[in-house]
Amino acid sequence: MLQELGVVREQIDTIDAQMLALLNERAKCAQHVGEIKAKYGEAGHVYRPEREAQVLRRIQDLNAGPLPNESVTFFFREVMSACLSLENPLGVAFLGPLGTFSESAAVKHFGHAARLAPQSTIDDVFREVESGHAQYGVAPVENSTEGAVGRTLDLLLGSSLQICGEVVLRIHQHLMTRESELGHIRKVYSHAQSLAQCHEWLNRSLPGVPRISVGSNAEAARLASLEPGTAAIAGEAASERYGLPRLVESIEDEPNNTTRFLVLGRHDAGRTGSDKTSLIMSASNRPGAVHELLAPLADAGVSMNRLESRPARAALWEYVFYVDIEGHRDDPAVKTALDALASRAAYLKILGSYPQAVY
Q1: pTM of this prediction exceeds 0.90
Q2: Burial class (CB in 10 A: 0-12, 13-18, 19+), 306
Q3: In this structure, which topology does domain 178-250 adopt according to CATH?
Q4: Which of 63, 220, 322, 344 could form a Cys-Cys staple with 308, CB 3.0–4.6 A?
Q5: What secondary structure letter does DSSP report for 278?
Q6: Which CATH class is domain 90-171+257-267?
Q7: Which CATH number is associated with domain 1-88?
Q8: What tens-digit pLDDT sequence spans the chain (359 residues)?
Q9: What exactly does this protein do (predicted)?
């Protein structure tokens, strides 16, 4: 057995050396790309979301296994992140503190080499990018269980930032504590949304135990790490950051609980062939106006993924509509639909075109 293992381990060592050499060759190519961009005055555009999405989709198409697509996607994201950091690490603002699902979304999209900047509020995430203190921001926009994140939608209405990407994160809520049994828990900390997502499990498993809402799941984990007899509901990142063991994993009531995050920047993305376009529009206050507003999408054969209404801040009982459609605004069909919308809508704002999330 030892002899057979020795042969295989030698093969692994040889492959590792080859991989290391190839990774450094790739890094040199990335540096050359940066030099070419600097030569033509585009040094500030080191990150191109459409190019990254194309690379990841190509890798998934080439993947013959046994590694699953999720694993190879994670690996190549980290490779691209490390290569970008050779030029200038990207500054990424997100809703903090460290250990939140927003941090996990930022890392999933930009890799561990990005310079992460946790913010206290979603407003601060927008401000960091608008001021140039961070190149990009990551903000939650909707959860499959709890619905839209209203503050993000409201800020998109008045901000000059554009959407240049999206991250879809599977949300696993864990009960973490230093206690060894559920019966020892006297108090549960978590963010209000996470408490709502685990409501039925808490009713069954910890009936009568007080649930205390705090500002973030990371703060819940911090408190539970300090107080005997307490537990927190949070994600894996918070567990690792505060060294808090997970007593029960995946306690969310909905097995497909997912949160979608937007990547915000001062530009949108180029076409990839698998894109979305997001926009805000309002209709005139008259019968049939909303139907007329949506008709250009159907006429042009453009699919709508999402329609969300929000009260307009300008007048009472007036609404704006947040719409996601399939395709890039430079696609002929989408361009035709948007041109028609511009002539019909009382208000129209294109939030950006960007690659659909790569899982």
Answers
A1: no
A2: middle
A3: D-Maltodextrin-Binding Protein; domain 2 (3.40.190)
A4: 322
A5: E
A6: alpha beta
A7: 1.20.59.10
A8: 878 888 889 999 999 999 999 999 999 988 888 788 777 766 556 688 899 999 999 999 999 989 999 999 999 999 989 888 887 788 999 998 888 899 999 999 999 999 999 998 999 999 999 999 999 999 999 988 778 888 999 999 989 999 999 999 998 999 999 999 999 999 999 998 899 999 999 999 999 999 999 988 999 999 999 999 999 999 998 999 899 999 999 999 988 889 999 999 999 899 999 999 999 998 777 777 778 888 889 999 999 999 988 887 665 457 889 999 999 999 999 999 999 999 888 889 999 999 999 87
A9: Catalyzes the Claisen rearrangement of chorismate to prephenate and the decarboxylation/dehydration of prephenate to phenylpyruvate.
